[in-house]
Fold this protein.
Amino acid sequence: MNTERAKRKLSAILSADVKGYSRLMGEDEVGTVRTLKEYREVMSKLIKEYRGRVVDSPGDNILAEFASVVDALECSIEIQKELKAKNAVLPDNRKMQFRIGVNLGDVIEDEDKVYGDGVNIAARIEGLADPGGICISGSGFEQVRNKLRLGFQYLGEHTVKNIIQPIKVYRVLMEAESAGRVIGEKEPKQREWAGKALVAVAVFVLVIGGLVWNFYWRAPAPQSTSKGKPASHNAVMGMPCAVVDV
């Protein structure tokens, strides 16, 4: 019996949603829907420009697929820049800030939709991003770290809902002064090696100190005469002396 195999592929997934969407709706439904529609148009336009496609947009969420994780991350950065400019003219309580998660993973394609852990991970790490910020998974980070002039902050491994293995997560640092830096990733290793170095130095000092003590300061053991009696101090030091029997 032949069973149809699911169509799988490796894709970069961008998942975005609005921080505080329920509050915005509760305060002004009409204004929130209007702003959301305007911002979605901006995001959809940029996704298309970066060779991606919108695959779903339920509620305040937007889900997009890219063939390249570099395109997905560059698009995310442009989205946040565009929306930041639009938010600048709004009162603080009406700003609509999106959080974005980017992941590179295996997905199942079914008609125009995509499913699977590759999608779910993007949605989960999106929730770890700051409002107006971007987080990327470890699999995506490895592909972009040397290709884009960005900085990253390693947030550690996170256990996320319905994903068996912990996911490495990085915060994307978009400031120019952070370009090329990866904060936090190597610090634990540096501390580990520093600790090992201190232990090695301490052992070395103790060994050398012991050798010096034995060589210079430890009193030589008294030598015995042929009759079993201790030799005089002069004999011990190698000087001739007379042994007197009593």
